[in-house]
Amino acid sequence: xxxxxxxxxxGNGPAGNAAADTLRASDKLARIxxxxxxxxxxxxxxxxxxxxxxALDADALTVRPYTVYKDxxxxxxxxxxxxxxxxxxxxxxxxxxxxxxxTKLLIATGGRAFTPPHLAPFRDxxxxxxxxxxxxxxxxxxxxxxxILILGGDLxxxxxxxxxxxxxxxxxxxLNPDSFWPLKLTPEMAARIQKSLEKKGVASCVAGDIQDIxxxxxxxxxxxxDSKCAFTxxxxxxxxxxxxxxxxxxxxxxxxxxxxxxxDRLRTNFPDVYACGDxxxxxxxxxxxxxxxxxxxxxxxxxxxxALNILGxxxxxxxxxxxxxxxxxxxxxxxxxxxx
Length: 340
What we know:
By secondary structure, this protein is α/β, with parallel strands linked by helices. It is built from seven helices and 22 strands.
């Protein structure tokens, strides 16, 4: 007799999709559901800056069309927000109070834009972009804006800056030291980055953090940095990394810290509940501590590994070397897990 399994995946990124593919390849009969609070199908997040400036249309973002899920008998539920989980009853509660029962659950919800506490008072004056919805809302404002100040220094901010320059925008850059963690942004490093960015067309690049933002009568924003520099611009973009999307888990009994705590088989403290990707903290027995790997490739690897273990395997995920990329002549760690 069939087991009538229902595998539910929360999250429609590379981890969730890799898991769904692996589950379907090994189990042709089980129900598989992907639940995402976004309305857009699986897409390339690293192409969002090009979509933001109009260099790409929405179709160019798509990894796979909706019809692929139908052909593979995977139910795709877009625009559905999970409010809470009852792991003891194996039930998800959606925003409109619909109950979804599962036999095995994978949490792969990724992250959202992170705002450091000291920038919280200015949040209403800042623009963020980590998801398609963010880019869709920001796109008309970018088209109308001529001058933009970018606060950050992470990889997304540099990609956005490049696309804004291609769109003939006036770009200012404020290097925020926290964006370069675990490296310390020394004056020498800042000078090298400033020179590199200004050579590429950035109007001005300085090191500093926001001290004040004042809205002028003409709609412009007057931004003062703690370095005493000031800019008058149309928009301020904040790119300070990500924080895990796990609010709906809190209170469920599933162990969390900054992310969902899992063992090296990606299992949580509840049987049949797994987590992977940017929202997961994975235990490393050798280090006796939890670690995080970010990036598309790592997410896919974790998704496949979690799916195999959901199916009864005992695959152990091994920590990869910390990702270090070249950013304007400097080697910067790609991890965004920092305690404030």
